Amino acid sequence: MESQKVNEEKNRQSLAREHEQLWQRDLPRGVRLAIDWDDADTYSGVFRSVRVETESVPPDREKALRAQAEALVQRVTFLPEKLALLELDKSQKTAVLRSALPFRNEKAVLFFEIWLTRGQEILFRRIRNENHKRRTVPFVLPWEISDRLIKELISILTF
Questions:
Q1: Nearest 5°: phi and psi at 102?
Q2: Which of 89, 149, 148 is CA-nearest to residue 125?
């Protein structure tokens, strides 16, 4: 029984590595992808965050930031919650997007959050806000959706 559990754990880790290797293999030059995993199975991955960064500097960061934020809202429509632009800070060169209609229960509010920084970095994660205390929490995405999300994040950051 113990060896079966060990084998199952190895298989889950192997699936996560396989997907990450595929994503890493297809990265454009100068782009980095960092995935913070919690778990994986045959059908899905459990993520804590996805970060995409590029070395290339957009000629007009303010314009690039706005275009990237708009592209995220328009193209990342396959998540359980639709995204909306919450803030565009020109002086800090950051944009924040969140779930337009977050999940609410009697204890907390949960939402997807994306930080765009300088037109060169995207950080995607799920936040739980309980009693005004925010923390990053794991989220589950089927492989098909995670593949699509990562491709879109890379494409939006590098267009």
A1: -70, 160
A2: 149
Look at strands 109-117 and 103-104 and give their pairing: antiparallel
Task: Write the single-letter amino acid at 69.
Answer: A
State the helix-helix crossing angle for 2-25 and 143-158, rounded to 10 degrees.
30
Burial of 2 (0-12, 13-18, 19+ CB in 10 A): exposed
The token pair at 27 is 């990265």
What type of residue sits at position 26? D
Q: Where are the alpha helices (DSSP H) in 32-111?
A: 61-75
Residue 1 pLDDT > 90, yes or no? no
**pLDDT tens, 36-84?**
988 888 899 999 999 999 998 888 888 899 999 999 999 999 999 999 9
